[in-house]
Design a protein that fits this description.
single chain, alpha+beta, Malonyl-Coenzyme A Acyl Carrier Protein, domain 2, Alpha-Beta Plaits, about 25% strand, flat, disordered C terminus
């Protein structure tokens, strides 16, 4: 019972999250420190947008702290890792932790033969100089007599496109599942992904791809990109890409000025230099450039 005019003290404590809402516990005490009311409430939070990054943000050990401390995140990693080991013969967890410069896939035994067959069945379409579309194997150097295959990259396999893409989408999916298990994800949240991040966004928020299908798709995507241009023995090509923000040159250097510079360089060097993507069509604008290397190899 609370008497008229009695002084009350209210304590509010944040005790958890539920679907993006803050859950608070409310306790009210009278002047004799006797509890006269208690309850819980959900407090709606400002809308949150969940944005998933693209390739280029990978680094050794990423996501491993969460792997060690979150059962939800660990389940995502372990599911992806088990699938990749069974289907393609490599561990993405090993690549993220150790970033080895080489990884050899052995094709011995029944399991190894099945893995070899999957590599042999991976194909892509290309157009020759006469405009004829041809279907070619992604791994033309693997045949029924191949006993092993070695992936390599001078900076470590985490920086090889096909492995970087898997590592990133699994990291992002694991982080999302960890947040969801803790009640942080709002219903009907706005979400987006940049480039590769589109796959993470669709798999995480929209739930359109199970983790096994997600890593299959991005591995195939990465291999196709990796094989799209000629590379040397160290896995380097004559092509590269960079992001450009004209406003960082000066406030007067706009997108028209950048286009003029790009065209001028391409004309004078007789090398490929093109704006291939508009990340945002606002001021200041961001561009992605693809270029052939004038001197040296990247």
């Amino acid at each position: 019972m609370v008497l008229p005019g009695e002084e009350l003290h209210v304590k509010i404590k944040h005790i958890g999250m539920r679907q993006g809402n803050m859950v608070v516990k409310v306790e009210t005490y009278n002047g004799r420190d006797v509890k006269v009311l208690e309850g819980t409430a959900e407090v709606a939070q400002p809308p949150t947008a969940y944005v998933f990054t693209g390739q280029g943000s990978q680094e050794p050990g990423m996501g491993m702290e969460l792997y060690n401390n979150s059962p939800a995140a660990r389940a995502v990693w372990d599911t992806a890792d088990a699938h990749l080991l069974a289907v393609y013969g490599f561990s993405i967890i090993e690549i993220v932790k150790d970033n080895p410069k080489e990884k050899t896939i052995h094709f011995g035994g029944i399991k190894g033969q099945a893995i070899r067959t999957r590599y042999m069945e991976m194909t892509y379409d290309t157009m020759d100089k006469d405009g004829v579309v041809r279907t070619l194997p992604l791994f033309g150097d693997i045949n029924v007599r191949t006993q092993r295959y070695t992936f390599s990259h001078p900076n470590g396999l985490l920086f090889a496109t096909q492995f970087a893409q898997i590592a990133l989408v699994v990291t992002e999916k694991a982080a999302f599942e960890d947040m969801q298990s803790k009640g942080f994800i709002q219903n009907n949240a706005v979400f987006a992904g940049h480039s590769l991040g589109e796959y993470s966004a669709l798999a995480s928020v929209a739930g359109v791809l199970p983790i096994s299908s997600l890593v299959d798709v991005v591995f195939y995507r990465g291999i196709t990109m990796q094989r799209a241009v000629e590379r040397d023995s160290a896995n380097r090509s004559n092509y590269a890409m960079c992001a450009v923000n004209p406003s960082r040159v000066s406030s007067s250097f706009n997108d028209s000025a950048l286009r003029e510079v790009v065209d001028d360089i391409s004309s004078k060097t007789n090398c490929l230099l093109e704006i291939v993507n508009f990340n945002v069509e606002v001021c200041p604008a961001f561009f992605r450039l693809a270029y052939s290397v004038i001197s040296g190899r990247y």
